[in-house]
Amino acid sequence: NAQIFKGKWRVGVDLGGRRIIKKKNGTQKYFGLDFGFSQDPTAGIRCYIHNNKLYITHEAVKIGLEIDETGEFLESYLPQLRTHYIYADNSRPESISLIKRQGYNVIAVEKGKGSVEDGIAYIRSFDEIIVHQRCIETIKELTLYSYKVDERSGDITNYIVDQYNHCMDALR
Fold first, then answer.
1. Contact 9, 130 (CB under 8 A)
2. Which residue, among 139, 144, 148, 149, has the nearest Cα to 164 in the 3D structure?
3. What pLDDT shows up at residue 112?
4. How far apart, in whole angstroms, are the C-alpha atoms of residue 120 and residue 116?
């Protein structure tokens, strides 16, 4: 019950195992990037919106990713990356600068007070989040990303646990 996105998402296959995430021609694709390194992975996401549903089609996740290898790594997992903007956490301007010099269109995204909560509210505003089955880390995070549960009362609090959120941060 403490899952942040409980009841809002599903894996994009039907009961027969066929893909239901299909290419939507002309649909704007969005790319997000959350930097990490030693403990936390660098995470990249590719998604699009169609009929008020959020589709997550690709992910790129790696711990220990060297910054000069980031663009190439992301591009190997996120199709069409070079032809779109990549929205990235502004806390790493030197990393953004390097990736830009490598020919990627990176935009630093301001994160102010309440931006995590606002981002979660925005994602929850979609009718549904549909995740491609290849996005294993995203599925794991959607399952485990949660609000803190009070140890004494068992009540779910409004405090967001800072774990299982790297793909989620890239998505926000």
1. yes
2. 144
3. 76
4. 6
